[in-house]
Design brief:
binds beta-L-fucopyranose, Jelly Rolls, TIM Barrel, eight-stranded parallel sheet, globular, alpha/beta
Length: 474
């Protein structure tokens, strides 16, 4: 019934840079500026560089903590809304070199990321409350492009340029019309491998900062906005004209079902990123010293984001010393340990794998390889896959991944486990996409069945993983 539509939908696939980005899965945000010293969330641009004294700053400590959590990248607020720059820029004196600290933090962090083998990304706030050129059109664009050029040429490879659309200028405030297309062109020229996130064409803001996720997360969405008025009203994130015309609101619950897409002529691959902080604020506040999110909450967000076809950007704010607080460091290590234990050994390679549907040339055994070269495609949009481990096990999680080079196809699936000689449905899901993690709650069984109930043409599965329960949280 949907054949023509489905064919069109699955023709939308990610760019190479989007695939590489998605494979990072989980990466850190570091919010650090004069706000850390003024105890605020938004600076007003009048802060003196003399207050910036993170004398114990150690970028390696940050990177080690990030790696311990299992994160694969780090995005640094090189300039937040207050305009204070964490690097040695020639475009403004309002920068770290004129503070008592006097060292180029972007240099130290990007070097530490390189050494630690994780990706490095830059957050550069378009809204700048210090720059006198802000609100003066091209003059500010020239300044902004100059800053962008410094960041994208002097600090090695960048995986993400994170553009924040927040702008708190009131009714009489300065109005700057950003030349987004020009910014994007500079990024494509200088760092063709970088994704432009949030106010940009490559990675979509999930629509909230609390860590909430959608039940069904689609990467294929309409190009244009439904109503430009509503989108700028509902979302703090403005973007180019094209962006403002987008027919989806970042906060809408259903962005990509067939019902939403059926009358859309222009579609794009635009995957979601979930961003939230490990603490109540984006910046560190002494009064919130002990308010680090509990492990169970972080695990839950991880499972719903990384395991829900999104990426997870978790903010950890350094203290006035320039170090991550010991509470945060401890929590990150706990999270890393949890993830490590929970996904320690995939039982599928030693299991008996069967599939009721015929194959179209790609073997079911390929789904243990987790590579886009080897995958499995049943010849119909429904399939039952059975996984029989050698012995009865208590199971923690199941992972299914689609080969996103073939777009996102699965619309609905279910997971059953064998109990007392018959299958019992344990989970009913919607989308799979890049990755779906299904909690199995420690259930004891010797057979798991995945039922793909509906798919936009034949499902292309690139990986299946079944894991023993680590005895915590699942
Ligand atoms: C928002 C900003 O206003 C916050 O300060 C923070 O940077 C967050 C990630 O984005 O729009």
């Amino acid at each position: 019934m949907y054949m023509e539509l489905d064919k069109r939908l699955v023709s939308v696939v990610p760019s190479e840079r989007q695939v590489r980005f998605q494979q990072l899965e989980f990466y850190a945000f570091i919010h650090f500026t004069v706000n850390t010293f003024t105890d605020r969330e938004w600076g007003d641009g009048t802060e003196s560089p003399s207050i910036f004294t993170p004398m114990k700053l150690d970028a390696q400590q940050w990177v080690n903590a990030v790696i311990s959590a299992g994160m694969r990248g780090l995005i640094l607020t090189c300039k937040h809304h207050d305009g204070f720059c964490l690097w040695d820029t020639k475009f403004t004196g309002h920068n770290v070199m004129n503070s008592p600290f006097g060292r180029d933090i972007v240099r130290e962090v990007s070097d530490a990321c390189k050494e630690g083998g994780i990706a490095f990304g830059v957050y550069l706030s378009p809204w700048d409350r210090n720059c006198p050129l802000y609100g003066r059109g091209k003059e500010y664009d020239d300044f902004f492009v100059g800053q962008l050029t410094e960041l994208l040429t002097n600090y090695g490879k960048v995986f993400s340029v994170w553009f924040d659309g927040a702008c708190g200028e009131g009714a009489n405030g300065k109005k700057q019309y950003y030349d987004w297309e020009r910014y994007y062109a500079v990024i494509r020229r200088l760092q063709p491998g970088a994704c432009i996130s949030v106010c940009g064409p490559d990675v979509r803001w999930c629509g909230n900062e609390a860590g909430h996720t959608r039940n069904a997360e689609w990467s294929v969405v309409p190009l244009r906005a439904r109503d430009s008025e509503i989108i700028s009203e509902k979302s703090q994130h403005e973007d180019s004209t094209e962006f403002r015309q987008r027919r989806v609101d970042a906060r809408d619950e259903d962005l990509g079902s067939r019902a939403v897409l059926k009358n859309e002529s222009e579609l794009i691959w635009y995957p979601a990123e979930v961003n939230t902080s490990i603490r109540p604020g984006w910046f560190y506040h002494e009064s919130e010293n002990d308010r680090v999110r509990p492990l169970s909450e972080l695990v839950d967000i991880y499972i719903r984001s990384v395991g829900g076809n999104a990426t997870f950007l978790l903010n950890i704010p350094p203290t006035k010393d320039g170090l991550l607080h010991e509470n945060d460091v401890k929590r990150l290590a706990e999270l890393g340990e949890f993830l490590h234990k929970s996904f320690a050994e995939n039982l599928v390679p030693d299991s008996e794998l069967t599939c009721e549907s015929e194959l179209t040339g790609f073997g079911i055994e390929n789904v243990i390889k987790d590579s886009y070269e080897s995958w499995y495609m049943p010849n119909s949009s429904n399939a039952d896959i059975q996984i029989k481990p050698p012995r009865t096990e208590k199971l923690g999680y199941l992972i299914i991944k689609e080969n996103i080079l073939k777009s996102q196809r699965i619309e609905s699936f279910a997971v059953d486990v064998m109990k007392g000689g018959c299958f019992r449905e344990l989970f009913r899901g919607t989308t799979v996409g890049y990755k779906r993690i299904v909690p199995l709650g420690g259930i004891e069984t010797d057979c798991v069945r995945i039922r793909i109930n509906d798919s936009r043409t034949m499902p292309a599965i690139s990986f299946i993983g079944v894991y023993r329960s680590a005895g915590i949280n699942n």
